[in-house]
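Hi, here's the filled form for the chain we discussed.

Project: internal
Contact: R.S.
Residues: 271
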Amino acid sequence: MNIYDQAYQCLIETDVQKKRQQATALYAQCQTEKLNRDNADTTVQIIELAGKPEKPILVSPAKLKRRSLYTDKGRAVLLHAIAHIEFNAINLALDAVYRFRDMPDDYYCDWLKVASEEAYHYGLLEGRLQAMGYQYGDFPAHNGLWEMAVKTSHDVMERMALVPRVLEARGLDVTPNMMQGLQQAGDNETVEILKIILRDEIGHVAIGSRWFHYCCEQRGLEPIETFQKLLQKYMKGGLRGPFYTEARLQAGFTQEELDQLIEMEKRQLEA
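And the returned structure, exactly as it came back:
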């Protein structure tokens, strides 16, 4: 079976454990075998909702309440939210493989690596949730990440800009404060898991940066200017700070880009 059809089968899988196993196997296959890109179904489908179990129930972000990290349930709610992000991230990486079919082979291996690592992250979080007496699906979640995937399904460059370099990069910004709060609450086990996730997510955003710059080069576009235009189009002109400068620089942002993000945020706050 070609890589697109394999990614699609994993993408629509509703059983979380099967999805994790398949994603891991696809990356292992990519490392040892030449990609089969032949005889793919030419009809690439818009997937309004990727394969997921019946729970969690999806609600609007406004309906998700913040809870204190000094209670077991509050920490479980946070863990559940992160687990849901990691689950969505498996699907996002698989969709990047399935949907965009005119990229170099390295692109597909990069995103299969991301899918495999996101599956690993999900497993760490699920295990921690279970140790606390909860399961994935016990709390509601929102679908913002996948909604952006649908919005950018028409263009690989826009996908690379808006999912890894905006939404996933936001995870780099907020994770240090989450780790600090959990440490203050005495939950060092979860902190250790978040350290692993933060390390790997820097690499995932860097992969997004790599292929965003590749697309810009192929189209004769200037990357910083193009990224700003896409922020105007999709994010109303800017992003919220604070920005984790060190991590973003490691993930392929330039200092000039970061300075412009800070300036754009400042203008938004003054407006």
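Let me know if anything looks off before we file it.
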